[in-house]
TrEMBL record:
Protein name: Dihydropteroate synthase
EC class of the enzyme, as a word: transferase
Listed pathway(s): Cofactor biosynthesis; tetrahydrofolate biosynthesis; 7,8-dihydrofolate from 2-amino-4-hydroxy-6-hydroxymethyl-7,8-dihydropteridine diphosphate and 4-aminobenzoate: step 1/2
Biological function: Catalyzes the condensation of para-aminobenzoate (pABA) with 6-hydroxymethyl-7,8-dihydropterin diphosphate (DHPt-PP) to form 7,8-dihydropteroate (H2Pte), the immediate precursor of folate derivatives.
Superkingdom to which the source organism belongs: Bacteria
Length: 300
């Protein structure tokens, strides 16, 4: 593990209670409390080809309607992405990505200025444009290992940073937790070397990204081991293909399975949940939070 930054914003000891309050530093000097209650991140895909909701939010007007509904249902953050990350999706370049993203981002920020917005991108140029337009978080599905300049940008702007694990385009270790530690430790090193503060960082184990169903199930079963990395954890299981492997359902029918993983992973200490169906997952999270709170009252 890389050294922690101590006075530069350390979130605490590496084995800290994941349900204890800690502040996540976002852009524009804002902070978000993580730990005592799970928070929902509403997915807003500005793509024609995402596996679940491709084409639903291409216009700013449609995106604002979707975003407003998700916030009303309980989303604390909106995550906007303009390039599909599903397996086999056609790649686009940064110019295309920004052409899709920016009109929607600007419209959502104007309609919901109080709601933090995350931009789902692995390109520093796109991330910069989004932060300048009011986004407060960068969600990098390559964990800074595709474009390390994102780390410099986040250090410069003080934005929140989500570092995701992926198994794409590399050899992976047989043990899923060891592979998480190896990849994410390298990403953390890149971030800290660029001047990113610990308090800006959230980690995402990347459910479904170059992982087979057994790997995803093992990652859920051993999820609590990831707290040794010392950072808050976000999870994105929503409608993923591995849920269909276990339930036999297509993407649009996987919301119940998603909610089940939300409850299970909240009990294991996850702080943030990236979801498509906010209302259903809000109910699952409410029950999980009640159980967690009762356990703490009883001294568990």
């Amino acid at each position: 593990m890389p050294p922690r930054d101590g006075g530069r914003g350390s979130p605490g000891e590496t084995n800290a209670n994941p349900f204890a309050a800690r502040q996540w530093q976002l852009g524009s000097g804002n902070m978000l409390t993580l730990g005592p209650k799970g928070l929902l991140v509403g997915v807003l895909n500005v793509t024609p080809d995402s596996f679940s909701d491709g084409g639903d939010n291409l216009s700013p007007e449609a995106a604002v309607r979707s975003a407003t509904a998700m916030v009303a249902e309980g989303a604390a953050i909106l995550d906007i992405g303009a390039e599909s990350t599903r397996p086999g999706a056609a790649p686009i370049d940064g110019t295309q990505e920004r052409a899709r993203l920016m009109p929607v981002l600007e419209a959502v920020r104007a309609a919901l200025p109080e709601v933090p917005v995350s931009v789902d991108t692995y390109r520093a140029e796109t991330a910069r444009a989004a932060l300048e337009a009011g986004a407060q978080i960068v969600n990098d599905v390559w964990g800074l290992q595709h474009d390390p300049q994102i780390a410099n940008l986040v250090a410069e702007t003080g934005a929140g940073l989500i570092i995701m694990h992926t198994g794409r385009e590399r050899d992976v270790l047989a043990d899923p937790i060891e592979d998480q530690r190896a990849f994410l430790s390298r990403s953390i090193e890149i971030a800290l070397a660029a001047g990113v503060r610990d308090a800006q960082i959230v980690l995402d184990p990347g459910f479904g990204f170059a992982k087979d169903p057994a790997h995803n199930a093992a990652l859920m079963a051993r999820f609590a081991e990831l707290h040794a990395l010392g950072y808050p954890l976000l999870v994105g299981t929503s409608r993923k293909r591995f849920l269909g492997h276990f339930t036999g359902r297509q993407a649009e029918g996987r919301d119940v399975a998603t909610a089940a993983t939300t409850a299970l992973l909240r009990a294991a200490g996850a702080a943030l949940f990236r979801v498509h169906d906010v209302a259903m997952n809000a109910d699952a999270l409410a029950m999980a939070d009640a159980m967690v709170a009762a356990g703490h009252r009883d001294g568990a």
